[in-house]
Amino acid sequence: EVVVNRIAAGEIIQRPANALKELLENSLDAKSTYIQVVVKAGGLKLLQIQDNGTGIRKEDLSIVCERFTTSKLCKFEDLTQIATFGFRGEALASISHVAHLCIQTKTAAEKCGYKATYADGKLLGAPKPCAGNQGTIITIEDLFYTMPQRRQALKSPNDEFQKVLDVLAKYAVHNPQVGFVLRKQGEQPALKTPASSTRADNIRIIYGAAIAKELMQFSYKDDMFKFELECQLTQVNYASKKSILLLFINQRLVESAALKSVLDAVYATYLPRGQHPFIYMSLTLPPQNLDVNVHPTKHEVHFLYQDEIIERIKQQVEAQLLGSNA
Ligand code: ADP
Ligand code: MG
Questions:
Q1: Locate the DNA mismatch repair protein S5 domain: which residues (predicted)?
Q2: Going from the N-terminus, what domains does the chain have, and what CATH number goes with each?
Q3: Residues near ion ligand 2 (Cβ under 5 Å)
Q4: What was the ipTM of the complex prediction?
Q5: Closest C-alpha among 282, 305, 300, 302 to residue 291
């Protein structure tokens, strides 16, 4: 059973960057305004995330690593109404099957914090009282020590660090109200954004002044298909050798091959060869229109009226690009 659980967990947690994504979403769901990430060996040796959110109640520490344990569903109907994709209570459980996991946390209501360690979905010993501020520190060590072949396949800490940086950068752009810090242990921050920042400022801090200067911002609300779009895009991205696309749907970083290929085609008709855009898109859809059968950790997303919605997004982007040429 342990082996089966580890294999299942290894499908959910594929590398440090996607463990980080789950942890970031938990911290954001917990209403954090400050999130700090520390890594060693690209997150393979150490991946630690500290937040100042609500914290986890002591009595919940024994169950947060059981599969399908979530505080985000109260009744069955919530399943169709839930605004986040992260609703299945599998992230922490999975991590505990493939790494050493320690949770230190304090809620506003409790006098002291508690520290708990986990292995294979189970709490090891009773949570120990400890000092600390309100919020949660999740420490993951030796990722995939239970799966030597997987560990072996992720050879390059540098590649893993780049992916970790990429995920954090995108969440920082999407959540400018939250302050983010990412550092390699013992080093200066590799990325740092202030709390109560703006999206444009975070794009400048992270992706550079040249891109930020070219940004066109627009929003669009569609009554027919009931979606909202927030967008920042450049016509030309002089500063980068490749396209940069940040796509969030209902606050979760996702990929949509269908939308991407339409955007690529739009830009191909506007841009000389070899020039690439920066695109940030945040799409909000009625939660019941998202395909809840797609596993929450799958990046590729599908939704109802996808073709129609993508066509409308295309029209909006074209109008922006045309407008800026006029
Ligand atoms: P899910 O996010 O799908 O509920 P997770 O396995 O990611 O499942 O987390 C399990 C539960 O642990 C969450 O529902 C939440 O109650 C709690 N939790 C995890 N991380 C945090 C955090 N940083 N702050 C507060 N609560 C947290
Ligand atoms: Mg989660």
A1: 203-322
A2: 2-193 (3.30.565.10), 208-325 (3.30.230.10)
A3: 26, 86, 91
A4: 0.99
A5: 302
